[in-house]
Amino acid sequence: MMRALYTSATGMMAQQMNMDVVANNLANVNTTGFKRSRADFEDLLYQEMRPAGSVVAQGATAPTGIEVGLGVKAGATVTMFEQGTFQNTGQSLDIAIEGDGFYKVLLPDGGSGYTRDGAFKRDNQGKVVNSDGMALQPEITIPDGATSVSIGKDGTVNATIAGVASPIGKITLTRFPNPAGLSHIGGNNFKASDASGTAVDGTPGQEGFGTIAQGMLEMSNVQIVQEMVNMITAQRAYETNSKSIQTADEMLSTANQLKH
Questions:
Q1: From CA 82, how far away is CA 133, in angstroms rounded?
Q2: What is the mean pLDDT of residues 28-42?
Q3: How many Å separate Cα 211 from the centre of its chain?
């Protein structure tokens, strides 16, 4: 009977984590370039009371065994990289990736961060940076006196000075064999890990990389209705597991009250 108490407790803890993931998705429903996560779970060890195929009588074996599961645990949180919807902003340094790839930015520690957030700005030195001041890589500097900036689908950046458009740089994209293995570091940024594989840089629109859309931002890929369904499912599963604990407790209470 005690197994049911501990097994149900693991179910409640699992649903607490499930709810944490759903809550984070909903909290970032308006975060530019945010990618939703999903919690995956695994069943725990089984207590084997009788193995399948054991001899139960002369010349007879059991076709099935007797095994009792001991609960559930979190297996992984998986980032889902489906394309988010586009929002037209009309800002020249707002860019969105249509397809595969990440922008590369220079982190404060000198390493490389990767993001789908294309809300870039111009700093006091003319560099193209993100909202936290991290420079886009390869570095692009908009010269003084530029009246407009145009960015092509292939990432070519042109600045218009005195009515003449001249190229000032090129935006490249980065992709990974396993983007789900990237590490979240906050600020809409990811960092490469052993699980993500080696970063591959390339030109937008070539060799499977996505293209650049100027004046657009990729919004979060969180679907509110789906997350609300996930929330209700997690809540009901939590309640059901708590009911299992209550029922097991009542059965133990009944057994304790037996009198000879």
A1: 27
A2: 96
A3: 22
- Record the pTM: 0.87
Which two structure tokens, joined as six digits, stand for 202?
Answer: 């390339």
The tens digit of pLDDT for each residue in 62-120 reads 788 888 889 999 999 999 999 999 999 999 999 999 999 999 999 999 999 999 999 99
Domain locations in the chain as residue ranges? 2-81+222-256, 86-218
Strand 164-170 and strand 156-161: the pairing is antiparallel
CA distance 246 to 242: 6
Phi-psi region of 206 (alpha: psi -120 to 50; beta: other; left: phi over 0): beta
What is the C-alpha separation between 224 and 221, in angstroms, rounded? 9
